[in-house]
Design goal:
The structure is a single chain. By secondary structure, the chain is mainly beta. It contains one helix and eleven strands. The N and C termini lie far apart (about 40 Å).
Length: about 130
């Protein structure tokens, strides 16, 4: 059974940092695309960042470029999202998502959003 466990959310002041973790299990952790998506109250879900296992390629939404960094640790079957210089507009529920087996790439997952599995969300709240 595929499981995605997101954690690391919390309350932080603007300008602060958080690191989200997506612990994955139940599939081959060397053939995947994993992405972080977020949904703020009253807004549609949007892609934040994605990473592909094939070549480590990454994709970032324009709104987070230069502030967020996605990475993976295959030994721990975990994908991370380091979020720096947080802004109040980053407040949302953050979800990790999986494409496995890998059929596309990070850009395609984030831009098209073909998802095989979703994890539960973790709340990120940035106060001004």
């Amino acid at each position: 059974e595929v499981q995605l466990q997101a954690s690391g959310g919390g309350l932080v002041q603007a300008g602060g940092s958080l690191r989200l973790s997506c612990a994955a299990s139940g599939f081959t952790f060397d053939d995947y695309v994993i992405g972080w998506f977020r949904q703020a109250p009253g807004k549609e879900r949007e892609a934040v960042s994605c990473i592909s296992s094939s070549d480590g390629s990454t994709y970032y939404a324009d709104s987070v470029k230069g502030r967020f960094t996605i990475s993976s640790d295959n030994a721990k079957n975990t994908v991370y999202l380091q979020m720096n210089s947080l802004k109040p507009e980053d407040t949302a529920v953050y979800y990790c998502a999986l494409e496995s087996p890998r059929r596309t790439n990070a850009q395609n997952m984030c831009e098209v959003g073909v998802i095989d599995y979703w994890g539960q969300g973790t709340q990120v709240t940035v106060s001004s």
